[in-house]
Design brief:
By secondary structure, this protein is an alpha+beta fold. It has helices spanning about 20-30, 85-90, 100-115, 120-130, 140-150; strands spanning about 1-5, 10-15, 45-50, 55, 70. Helix 2 (about 85-90) crosses helix 5. The structure holds FE2/S2 (inorganic) cluster (2 copies).
């Protein structure tokens, strides 16, 4: 099936088998920052934003994304910026180790912070509760999120 969508702001048309997941569709186009872990909607590694909302791309079919705007970790930093503030503070606060979960977590948190621009630690932990990380213990992530909102503190 022929589908058209915006990928990180760039119009894109492509063919997708009816059963191709959005995650596979994205990765087949070279955007391999989006990772696929459980393929069952449980781990959050594949999270991207579809029309601004976090979505588990392993559970969404590519054909369901027809006509939408999809943002992946490759499109997270604003034009001209090398890193998004969250990417910078994740680095500074050692909030990742193997990095397999990181793209999904960043896309989840970016959407969360749009709705909750000054979150408490508890709200940050709640926002992270659907994304599994088996390396870090999450404390660095909580610090990184807080620091991204108050870079001078
Ligand atoms: S790979 Fe999609 S939720 Fe785990
Ligand atoms: S950094 Fe390894 S799974 Fe999260």
């Amino acid at each position: 099936m022929r589908i058209s969508l915006h990928l990180n702001g760039v119009p894109h048309a492509g063919d997708a088998e009816p059963r191709t997941s959005l995650a596979d569709f994205i990765r087949e186009r070279g955007l391999t920052g989006t990772k696929v872990g459980c393929e069952q909607g449980a781990c959050g590694a594949c999270t991207v934003q579809v029309d601004g909302e976090p979505v588990r791309a392993c559970l969404m079919l590519a054909v369901q994304a027809d006509g939408t705007s999809v943002r992946t970790v490759e499109g997270l930093a604003a034009g001209g910026e090398e890193l998004h503030p969250l990417q910078r503070t994740f680095h500074e606060e050692h909030a990742l180790q193997c990095g397999f979960c990181t793209a999904g977590i960043l896309m989840t948190l970016d959407a969360f912070l749009r709705d909750t621009p000054d979150p408490t630690g508890e709200q940050i932990r709640e926002a992270l509760s659907g994304n599994l990380c088996r390396c870090t213990g999450y404390e660095g992530m909580v610090r990184a999120v807080a620091k991204s909102r108050r870079p001078n503190v």
